[in-house]
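Journal club prep, notes for RB
We'll compare a predicted complex against what the paper describes. Inputs for the biotin case:
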Amino acid sequence: MADRTMPRTEPIRLEKIKEKLQARLIGETILYFSEAASTNDLAKEMAATGAKEGTVIIAETQTSGKGRLGREWASPKGGIWFSTILRPKLMPNNIPKLTLMTSLAVAKTISQLFNLKTEVKWPNDVLINAKKVCGILTEANTRGNITNFVVVGIGINANIELYSLSKQLGANATSLKHELKREIDRERFLRVLLEKMEHYYITLTERKFKPILREWKSLCSLLGSYVEVISWKEKIIGLATDVNEKGALIIKLRNGTLRKVLSGNVSLKRSKGLRHQKQ
Ligand code: BTN
């Protein structure tokens, strides 16, 4: 029987994140809101009016949390909902790399702090036991070949009861509390995560995406499986063979042709189009 009592989680305390934070860029400025419509929307407004790179915006709850593809993102108290403003010197077609490096940072934070096996799912999810514990929404402001800023929004189902997540995610979602059977220290989690994000971000901006991609692939169970991808209203079915140096998923179609997909929604097919396992 689900425990339907209110979460015990105390509000996030910024001093607890900042006191031991090793990162110098990401999290140098952290803003906290007990409630926001969407931290991504706030971050975009702040970035457009000159907020510094590395600014982190955290909200205890979001009233209009946004997921990918226009979906709603349930953001009750107890989760970790935040956005980071980045100003990378990257061409717009390299922006998917930021989503991959962020999912890697989240997966590594979970496996470092807890004895839980994590997976990354292209393009933006982190899974525990094949269920989604984190989603990432990357939004960019670009002009031609120039990236003005990027907002990376991260939603982690931390101290959350599963019943409070949207029906949409339903059985495909999990939370750290559900997996661990206890609440986590969200400030410590955020501190470790911001440090990892900074590490991977610096590596990426030094044009060293290869080691990040290698690590990411080692946590990606999708490669080598038959998948169905919905991308721009097109359905692509085939073997997920690789993720390339731009962060695109490479699908081998039944006729042997290779297709590159830069964004979309993937679900696993158990075997050549027979049984369909939704993720
Ligand atoms: C997805 O998996 O569809 C992406 C979910 C991203 C949710 C986060 S929570 C913080 C930030 N603010 C938002 O409105 N969305 C992102």
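Talking point for the session: The pocket of biotin is lined by residues 38-40, 62, 65-68, 71, 73, 75, 81-83, 124, 135-137, 153-155 (CB under 6 Å).
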